[in-house]
Each structure stands twice: as C-alpha cells, then as structure tokens.
Amino acid sequence: DAMVIQNPRYQVTQFGKPVTLSCSQTLNHNVMYWYQQKSSQAPKLLFHYYDKDFNNEADTPDNFQSRRPNTSFCFLDIRSPGLGDAAMYLCATSMGQASYEQYFGPGTRLTVT
Amino acid sequence: RKEVEQDPGPFNVPEGATVAFNCTYSNSASQSFFWYRQDCRKEPKLLMSVYSSGNEDGRFTAQLNRASQYISLLIRDSKLSDSATYLCVVNRDDKIIFGKGTRLHILP
User: Fold this and answer.
1) Are A2 and A101 in contact (CB under 8 A)?
2) In terms of CA atoms, which chain B residue is nearest residue A57?
C-alpha cells in the first residue's frame, strides 16, 4: 500500500563523500518534490519536477542535484556532503502544482560524519 | 516578516478540551491552504485542505479568513493521539510555503 517510498530510511555518509537518496511513487503523480527538514524547522523545498521539467529553488546550493529518469522515480544527489547537510530529506508527490495536496514519503535521515 | 507564520507553541491542553490555533500569511495572492500533521521524526501527513467556505472533518474544523489573511484549525474533544506538530501550508503561483508548525501536547 505504500504510495511514496524512500530508500534508504537512514543513511550515514562521510564528509565529502557523494550520496544518493531515492524516492519512488505508485501514485502516477506528475510532480515530485525534494525537501530538507532540520530539527524543529519547517520543511525547506530544494527543487521539484513537473513531469520532466526541473525547477530549482533559488537558494538551493549547487551541491544538491536531482534526477528523474521516469514518472515513478526521483533521486537526490548530494555531491559533497558537509556537516550542515545532516537532516531529514523528504520526498513528496502531487497531481499538479500549487493547489494540490502533497503526499510525503517517510523520509531519509542523513547523518554526515 | 515571514510569508507564513505560526505560533510555535507548545500548546499544552488537557485531554477532552478544545484547542485552536491560527496561521497567518502575508501575501494576499495566496491561493490554496492546507493543514498537515507531523509526528516526531515522521513525515508530514495531510490533515485537511482549507476551503473558502470552511470545512469540517470529524473533530477538526478548518477555516479561512481572506480579509485578515489567516487560516485556523480547531480540534474538539482532543485525544492523546492528537499530540503532534501542525504545519500550515500556503500555495501561491506554484510556490509552496510551509509554516514552522505549532506543537500541540495533549495532557492525560
């Protein structure tokens, strides 16, 4: 029944070592989002895809990249993780942009050592 | 001023009581509004969309006041399981803005 799946649930990486987080969905939604959430803070949108169109938030560091090879999958690549990148990374989907509700995956908690 | 603001709380409320909290937004062009619930170390889950006419789902009532630019969430007959952080989300022109959330603790 899982609709938005994120793997792994917990990821430990070393400072500067590239890491990839994955998200898949069974909802056939057009839009997929990646958020970063740190403790006691609101989720911060990094970027989203509307179908194959990539939309980067202005303040998302270049260190964060994304790929969406097909409707179901979306990846978050962190090229050189720093200690400040330790956070929960949430993937979400929606049917369309803006006025549609979002469905979140369980998140990947990233630790950087 | 932040575009979406919420009282962070915590609101400590005895079980069975009614509790309400608001979320204010600064941009009058905001188009759609949602309440999400987030449990500790879990993902946000949609609680309800907020419609112009107001809407109710069981013990939960959401209202939108466009004139004063806020949305509200009312929880009646609160349960221990209502303890969570409640996130307000405001959408405008394909931009999605989350509030920082209001923490609610229901006390036995």
Assistant:
1) no
2) B95
